[in-house]
Amino acid sequence: MDKKLFIPVLLGTPRKNRESGNVAHWVCSQMRERADIETQLFDVCDFRLPHDHYGQEIKDQFPEWRDAIVRADGLVIVTPEYNHGYPGSLKSVLDLLLREYVHKAVAFVGVSAGPWGGTRVIEASVPMVRELGLAVTFSDLNFPKVGDKFDDEGNLLDEAYNKRIGDFLDELVWMATTLRWGRENVPSKFHS
Ligand SMILES: Cc1cc2nc3c(=O)[nH]c(=O)nc-3n(C[C@H](O)[C@H](O)[C@H](O)COP(=O)(O)O)c2cc1C
């Protein structure tokens, strides 16, 4: 591959003291070590979303996000599980765009205090990202009991994730590469 894949990471919760922050930073650090990926971390905290408007009509108020997704080959979403669903702020940020996502890959990292590692929020998110035109990988990364996974400096304590992140990113790279080839070589009225 002659050009790196551009795959931003979206941290999906603005909660104070969020554990998902450690996860997102670790995932980004692992992506930066690969020769085939360029990434950039986006944090829903940094989006000053208005309370009196919503959706694609305000996308130009967020040019960095808009331009990143236009350029992106894929997206990693790091989401905590909140009542078996995704945070509203994550949905609000995703809903800023639509056509820009079409025929690009998305991979999920689920984070939970409970024992299931966000499997339920990921399952709940799949129909939503499908409507955005994103193609979901099948190799999720799950962080159950996340409070036990990192030390106070944000270092990951469980070495099993070193293999898991490799599998997670290998599949995402395959999907993103295949879809990039498709966008560049197979005409579609749906993608830009
Ligand atoms: C509103 C809310 C709902 C939650 N619902 C769940 C849940 O359904 N399942 C679960 O395992 N943990 C649940 N949690 C706990 C989170 O998974 C926990 O806070 C974890 O650290 C990930 O979220 P964080 O990034 O906000 O820290 C919930 C937390 C909040 C704030």
Shape type: globular
Number of helices: 5
Strand content: 15-25%
Give average pLDDT, whole number.
97
The helix content, as a percent range, equals 25-40%
SS elements, strand count? 8
Features:
5 helices; 8 strands; six-stranded parallel β-sheet; 35% helix; alpha/beta; 192 residues; two-stranded parallel ribbon; binds flavin mononucleotide; 16% strand
Describe this structure in words.
- With about 190 residues, the protein is α/β, with parallel strands linked by helices.
- The protein contains five helices and eight strands.
- It is globular and about 45 Å long.
- Bound molecules: flavin mononucleotide.
- The site of flavin mononucleotide (FMN) has 15 residues, from loops.
SSE topology sketch:
Layout: E1 5-6, E2 9-11, H1 20-32, E3 37-38, E4 41-43, H2 63-71, E5 74-80, H3 88-94, E6 104-111, H4 119-131, E7 134-136, E8 141-143, H5 161-185
Parallel strand pairs: 1-3, 2-4, 2-5, 5-6, 6-7, 6-8
Question: What's this, in brief?
Answer:
It contains 5 helices and 8 strands. The two termini are about 20 Å apart.
